[in-house]
Amino acid sequence: xxxxxxxxxxxxxxxxxxxxxxxxxxxxxxxxxxxxxxxxxxxxxxxxxxxxxxxxxxxxxxxxxxxxxxxxxxxxxxxxxxxxxxxxxxxxxxxxxxxxxxxxxxxxxxxxxxxxxxxxxxxxxxxxxxxxxxxxxxxxxxxxxxxxxxxxxxxxxxxxxxxxxxxxxxxxxxxxxxxxxxxxxxxxxxxxxxxxxxxxxxxxxxxxxxxxxxxxxxxxxxxxxxxxxxxxxxxxxxxxxxxxxxxxxxxxxxxxxxxxxxxxxxxxxxxxxxxxxxxxxxxxxxxxxxxxxxxxxxxxxxxxxxxxxxxxxxxxxxxxxxxxxxxxxxxxxxxxxxxxxxxxxxxxxxxxxxxxxxxxxxxxxxxxxxxxxxxxxxxxxxxxxxxxxxxxxxxxxxxxxxxxxxxxxxxxxxxxxxxxxxxxxxxxxxxxxxxxxxxxxxxxxxxxxxxxxxxxxxxxxxxxxxxxxxxxxxxxxxxxxxxxxxxxxxxxxxxxxxxxxxxx
Length: 504
Fold this sequence. Notes:
Blueprint: H1 7-11, H2 23-32, H3 43-48, H4 52-65, H5 70-81, H6 87-105, H7 124-131, H8 139-166, H9 169-185, H10 189-198, H11 206-223, H12 226-237, H13 247-267, H14 271-279, H15 294-308, H16 311-319, H17 322-329, H18 332-342, H19 346-360, H20 370-386, E1 391-393, H21 394-400, H22 405-417, E2 423-426, E3 431-434, H23 439-469, E4 472-475, E5 487-490, H24 495-503
Antiparallel strand pairs: 1-3, 2-3, 4-5
Helix pairs in contact: 4-5, 5-6, 6-7, 8-9, 9-10, 10-11, 11-12, 11-13, 12-13, 13-14, 13-15, 14-15, 15-18, 15-20, 18-19, 19-20, 21-22
């Protein structure tokens, strides 16, 4: 595949005179330039935690961003895709493998991808694959699987037509589900989504509606259509007779819905909502390998909570949570990070975060959000560190956060400009002073404001009482009337009442 031209990146480059670049542009550039050099991930264990397209997509992402794991990831993906009918993915994986070997043969560094000018008939990729005992493209497998898939599609389509002619709703629903499963196995996501959605008109119970929603959610996640995911999560949760099933079955579906909602909220950068959804997942019923593993739930929920929760929320909903504790047991490093943060051991916490950074960048769903989440965690740590003090030595703060004084000063300055820290910086002596607030004057201001509000409310109450006593009311007019407004009707009243209203 030829490389994408570099011109659009040059057009989006930041002008030298521009101080602050838009956040979205920065995020996109970081995602495009993402290369992971030193991962400690056990790729086999990582791949075994998911199934189907989820495993393939995750392995392809690892191959794209990590040169050192590229060959292993592609080999595992090719071996796995051959157990499915996904011919297009098989061809894509072999193309990536050939592009990789073509780039190596041309002397292109692994992180820069394959050279775009080499012909497709180059012999180096095949020879290298044979030398390293890597899978070679099997045209016979492609033709056989394509024929089998076509025959199965024809049979399923014929069965569905027969079901429709018999007008049996349950059979029609199962026919649409079978077609959707077949399209999903072949990697045709758009047709799979259509088939699963069409089954809705033939659902005869709440459980069938929920099952349809779960199928649509799964395909929508693969398509990264996050608004669709949230919409169908809401539809599943609002199904009226969903509670008819057993408690275990309901917990299983509830956990799936919360995990899907959390993933969608994470991708739309609503980190606190994502954390709340992941924290509601039940460990004993977290069985959704087509999308997420329990370790993924621990990582996504833990990081989002760390970035957005205050100390009380973190202690109550994460550290003391009997359910989420079981998830954190799968990720002991993340558990230690959360505990260190809660204990205000920020240097150790940030050091552990840096150690797991490369592994997080290999996860296709959390990788684009690592930098924003890490920034939020650092900012929250700085705010909590300074909150008890009237002044702080920035040299000691820099030591506590493993930063240079200059870098820390820039971070604190940004927090002050954003209004997250009420302080001022003595740049010469490197001391941070909290803004002194006059408690006496602020108390007087609050008291006066409360008095003004009380006076206003009292006047309104007296006015209403006087109007009711004088039988003064506003009569609404019919909608079809051409007159706009309302009629004010005044009943005869005493002169005392009139004088009262006039004074008000």
